[in-house]
Amino acid sequence: MIDTSTIRRLRGIEDLMPGDHLCWLFQNDTSHRKVVKPFILNGLAQEEAVIYLTDSHSPRVLLGYFRNEDSESSLVQHSLENGGLKILRAEGLYVREGYFDPEATICFLEREIRQVLDEGHSAIRIMEEMTWVLGANFGSDRLIEYEVRLDKFASNNKCQVICQYDRRVFSSVQLMEALLTHPIALVETNIYENPLYIPPQYMLGQSR
């Protein structure tokens, strides 16, 4: 879907920058682990708060990524206990009483930002499993609106956000819509400019 031979590589997953909002299209569980693990560990090592919104991967599976190394397991467990790492169910946050409100979701994230900064964290990282949308009853325009708002949110709050799209379950049309709303794309563990990106002022007009 993205030919990396024709676009510019920006950096690696270890070198995320404040304001980054990435679209990540992964295709298997091995790829998932290769990105999730350094994303979380690097954030915690830099005293950043990490929020992981899970849907298709259980907390047990995610925490299993860190069990082979005692130092990693200890850091993750300590962060879970002190609130530096939160693993939350995505569906309960996004869809309430069968309704998805992009603005309300962004408000939740803004409250989390204020809280973690008050607690002394230097920044916040957010990773979202987007498979929850497959069982939700709303049009694709609401998801586009959310991604556009999230793009502004990441930039304004200087946080790092990765939206996960599992290529095994999303259609090609859905994946294309996801790419349109993200300025940069994650392929394997490398970050590239996204030539398909459409700026927010144009996307919001198209989705209404």
TrEMBL record:
UniProt cross-references to InterPro entries, sorted A to Z: MEDS_domain (IPR025847)
Pfam families xrefs: MEDS
Domain MEDS: 20-183
Protein known as: MEDS domain-containing protein
Organism: marine sediment metagenome
